[in-house]
Design brief:
globular, Nuclear Transport Factor 2, Chain: A, 4 helices, 142 residues, alpha+beta
């Protein structure tokens, strides 16, 4: 009987050690997402769009290359607000984040707000998060 109790104690100890390791992995991944989202929001907020572009998924960047002219357009605006409205997880595990941007046209100082939806994908090979939707379209396709 004592042998079984010792075995049970060892199994319980193993489970107690394994459970926090799994939770730690999820927390670490979540912490990395928060860090990437903060870096992206900061770059956008301070007009560092070329820096923000480096956080976009390489596959997206290759399929939708940015030109110097496209980056030049961003120099004509200023982001006066970047507010995270809500987040959710899609069926494929990507994180969706709805953001409200406050945009000022530097030429006429007119401010407007618009909604932008970020989508973040975990890359298990690179062990990092990537934005898979590109930079926000601040001109509504114009």
């Amino acid at each position: 009987m004592r042998k079984w109790l010792n075995l049970l104690a060892v199994l319980l100890l193993a489970l107690m050690v394994a459970a926090p390791a799994s939770a730690l992995g999820k927390r670490k991944k979540g912490g990395q997402l928060e860090a990437m989202q903060l870096a992206y929001a900061t770059a956008i907020r301070w007009g560092e769009f070329e820096e923000a572009w480096q956080l976009v998924d390489p596959a997206y960047r290759e399929a939708h290359p940015m030109t110097e002219l496209a980056f030049e357009r961003y120099k004509h605006i200023e982001i006066s607000g970047y507010t995270d409205k809500n987040s959710s997880v899609s069926e494929d595990g990507n994180v969706l984040r709805n953001v409200e941007l406050r945009v000022i046209n530097k030429h006429n100082m007119a401010e407007r707000s618009l909604r932008y939806r970020e989508e973040w994908r975990w890359d298990p090979v690179a062990k990092r998060w990537w934005l898979v939707v590109g930079l926000p379209d601040l001109w509504n396709g114009e």
